[in-house]
Each structure stands twice: as C-alpha cells, then as structure tokens.
Amino acid sequence: MKTKLLLSAVLGVAAWSLSSMAAADWDTGPCPGGSSAPCIEAVVNGTTYHFNGTGDHAGEWHGLPTTGADFEFVGDSVELGCSGINLDCTLTLGGKVQKCQDSNGDWRIGVQVNSSNVSGGFLCSTVVLGGFPWYSRDASLANHCPFEDDCDSFIPYDPSATTYSGNFGAIDISVLGSSRVSGGHVHGVTFTPGTGATFSFASQFYDCDDDEQGCEVTGDLVLDNATSLDIQ
Q1: What does the UniProt keyword field contain (predicted)?
Q2: Distance CA 227, CA 214 (A)
Q3: What per-residue confidence (pLDDT) applies to 58?
C-alpha cells in the first residue's frame, strides 16, 4: 500500500511539474498589443494565454499552454491521392509554433509538425506519413529545400495579415507498405489563425527540384484541442 501511495504521489508531482513548465512558456491573459513584434495567443479550456510581442520567448517552440503537448489539427474529409489510389480520410497533425528574428532582425513565424494519424477505413489506415519533424518554409525563397529548424527560412510576419501561406516538408508517404513520396513537400499551405484556426492543403507533392512525385493532398484541418490559436 505504501509503495502504491508513493508511486501515486511521484506521478502526481511529475504531472504538476510538466504542467507548470508548460504554463511557464506562456503568460496568462490576452496579447497586450502595441508592439512591432508578433504576439501569439491561445485559448484553452476557457483561459487565454499568450507569449507576448516584446521579444520574450523568441526562438522557442511552443505547444499547448496547459501541457506543452502539440496543438492538434483534424480534418474529417481529406483527399489523398497517389498514382491511381484516391482516398477520403481523416487526417490529424500535431505540432508547435514559434516566433523568431532572422539574421536581418525581421520577425518570422515557424511551424513544426511532429506527428500524424490517418484513419477512416482500411486503405486509409495503411497510409503512413513520416519524415518528422516537418517545417514551414517561406515560399518566396528561390530554393524550396531544405526544410529545417532555421528562422531565416520561416514565414515572414505581417501584422496586417489574416492568413499565412508557406510550403511544408520534408514528408515521406507510404501506402499499403509501398513508398510513394520520399523527402517531398507541399506548396501553398494556408494557415488561418484565430478561433477554430485551420490549415488548408491543396497541393501536389514535390521533390527538391519541384518535380511532382505522383501524390496530392486536398483538405482543411481544424484546431481540435484548443479553442483558438492566433497571431497578432
């Protein structure tokens, strides 16, 4: 009995510590405004959090304010096609966000995708996405590769923007145990911040020479484990 009580206490302290560490990455309350730096805001379980626009938390990946886990986005009807195989699946992606200053001192927004799940029937369950983590990349850069944790390649911050668009990679895909895409990327993924934030996909998969790799994805993924994720 004492052993069980001790284990329970240890697990409880560990859970509290992880929650406290996650909360320390965010400040409670809405974005204060009045800064030239981006402020990222999230609402989880009725509580508003932000990491503010003064430059604090720059260059750090942020997950859920409450736990530090990835933000999850879910699309119930995402079309996945690869060389004659056309699927309508449920796609879940999990990831984190950061703000950072590039080598010129300009602010950029980075997105890191760390996990996926594809479901919705037998064939959908055979789709395996890999190559994590994936990263967002500024589509205006002459070279569409590499996709890496580098602020200079993230998406430029625009305080007047209502959406952000960029490329994402590097992505591996297999279907029915057969590799279909290796180190590929998608173009023009659009993030719409705010309440019910979304990622919208409508792209072929490309290699680093921008040649099509025979697969495509179309669909919208909606923020599922928080109420809002906003960029101000």
Answers
A1: Signal
A2: 36
A3: 92
Give the domain extent around 131.
2-231
Write down the residue that tokens 């992606």 correspond to: 93
Identity at 219, one-letter amino acid code: G
What are the phi and psi torsion angles at 155 (to 5°)? -80, 130
Give me the pLDDT at residue 94, please: 98
φ/ψ of 16, rounded to 5, equals -65, -40
Number of domains within the chain: 1
Task: Identify the three-state secondary structure at position 112.
Answer: strand
The DSSP call for residue 5 is: H
Cβ atoms of 99 and 38 closer than 8 Å: yes
Which residues, given as ranges, of the chain have pLDDT below 50?
Answer: 1-23
Rounded Cα–Cα distance for residues 173 and 180 (Å): 5
pLDDT at 17: 35
DSSP E strands in the chain: the ranges are 27-28, 40-44, 47-51, 71-82, 85-101, 107-119, 128-130, 134-137, 155-156, 164-175, 178-192, 194-195, 198-206, 212-223, 228-231
Give the rounded distance of the alpha carbon of 139 from its chain centre.
17
CA distance 138 to 19: 33
- Look up residue 84 and give its amino acid: G
Beta strands 164-175 and 178-192 are: antiparallel
Helix ranges (DSSP H) in the chain: 2-24, 122-125
Give the per-residue pLDDT at 24.
52
